[in-house]
Specification:
The protein has 361 residues and is an alpha/beta fold. The protein has helices at residues 15-33, 46-50, 58-66, 89-99, 123-126, 162-178, 193-206, 219-228, 240-251, 292-304, 309-324, 342-353, 355-359; strands at residues 2-11, 35-41, 69-74, 104-110, 130-136, 148-150, 153-155, 182-187, 213-218, 235-238, 261-265, 271-275.
Length: 361
């Protein structure tokens, strides 16, 4: 029997309850796949601070580096807002990404037919959207040095090297080759020197991928086009800060940030899977929030880290079946519709994903 070691980091706020639903689905698949998922839990972010530890404890980092994949809930809580910046919970996540060399963040944006009503856009605008946002994850403003904050002045540095842009561009072109062979690179090359390097480097990488159509778009226009005509996009490649903003915007095309999964991949076959939303501490423990993004992040884990592409599709099918049955959390429910809790959604998807046992696939 194959075994897969997963470092589970529930984190803060709603993190523990949404991760629990993803684990249910993974466990439901063990007899289908003939494997075992070995789960080892550790603290990160505010959960670590609560125990008097730094936001990324040494034992957590070691567990993650030794695991076959990392499964994360969410990090952050309002009660830590006023502590020194280097000890905030979010630093744990940034440090982990850097230590694991997770430079590529993949965020799929897909419109499910039963949820076309949930978007604020007209159904005909979003029906059929299927976008992959490829975000550079370990460079740019979030990691650039120098940086400074004083009472009346502050600055951050947006810095990229050519090798950093090359490696993320190669990931994006590989994604495009598996999809619609259209890649839109987003930058601000009319203003920023880092974006000029970005564009020049992406064009060089494009020469090795003649089957992929490459276009460029300024980030402000890209933000508008995502709302105006999202179906024009196949793969979007962009740097860290722009990707953070654009992928959250794109998530609302699906009706809720609770639908947006993500995979962060890097060197040495390391990868971490997490929903793209935050920790939403005001909803913690209420059995209210949408766990689908976290469950679909587990599906990405099965595909990218463990090679179970068919099982990933089974999870997607189970999510669609659940939505077709009218089962909804509050964020994606029609006005007046009955609302289902977090754990019940997890139960329903786990039940449906185990169907291949009975049907033979």
């Amino acid at each position: 029997m194959a075994t897969h070691k997963i470092a589970v980091l529930p984190g803060d706020g709603i993190g523990p309850e949404i991760v629990e639903q993803g684990i249910k689905v993974l466990k439901a698949l063990e007899p289908v796949l003939g494997c075992e998922f070995l789960l080892e839990y550790a603290d990160i972010g505010g959960a670590a601070l609560e125990h008097g530890k730094p936001p990324l404890p040494e034992e957590t980092l070691k567990l993650c580096l030794d695991a076959d994949a990392v499964y994360l809930g969410a990090v952050g809580d309002y009660k830590w807002d006023n502590i020194e910046p280097e000890r905030r919970p979010e630093q744990g996540l940034l440090q982990l990404r850097k230590a694991m060399e997770l430079y590529a963040n993949l965020r799929p944006v897909k419109a499910y037919q039963p949820l076309l009503h949930a978007s604020t856009l007209k159904p005909e605008i979003i029906d059929g959207i299927d976008i992959m946002v490829v975000r550079e994850l370990t460079g740019g403003l979030y990691f650039g040095k120098p940086r400074m904050k004083e009472p009346h002045e502050a600055f951050d540095t947006m810095r990229y090297t050519k090798p950093e842009v090359e490696r993320i561009a190669k990931v994006a072109f590989a994604q495009a080759q598996k999809r619609g062979k259209n890649l839109c690179s987003v930058d601000k090359a009319n203003v920023l020197a880092s974006s000029q390097l970005w564009r020049e480097t992406v064009e060089e990488v494009a020469k090795a991928h003649p089957d992929v159509s490459l276009t460029h778009m300024y980030v402000d226009n890209a933000a508008m086009q995502l709302i105006r005509n999202p179906k024009q996009f196949d793969v979007i490649l962009t740097e860290n800060t722009f990707g953070d903003i654009l992928s959250d915007e794109a998530s609302m095309l699906t009706g809720s940030l609770g639908m947006l999964a993500s995979a962060s991949i890097g060197e040495h076959h390391r990868a971490m899977y997490e929903p793209s939303h935050g920790s939403a501490p005001k909803y913690a423990g209420q059995n209210k929030v949408n766990p689908i993004a976290t469950i679909m992040s587990a599906a990405m884990m099965l595909d990218y880290s463990f090679g179970y592409a068919q099982a990933a599709q089974w999870i997607d099918d189970a999510v669609l079946s659940t939505l077709k049955a009218g089962i909804r959390t509050y964020d994606i429910a029609e006005p007046g519709a009955s609302i289902t809790g977090t754990s019940q959604i997890g139960d329903e998807i786990a039940k449906r994903v185990s169907k291949p046992v009975a049907t033979g696939g």
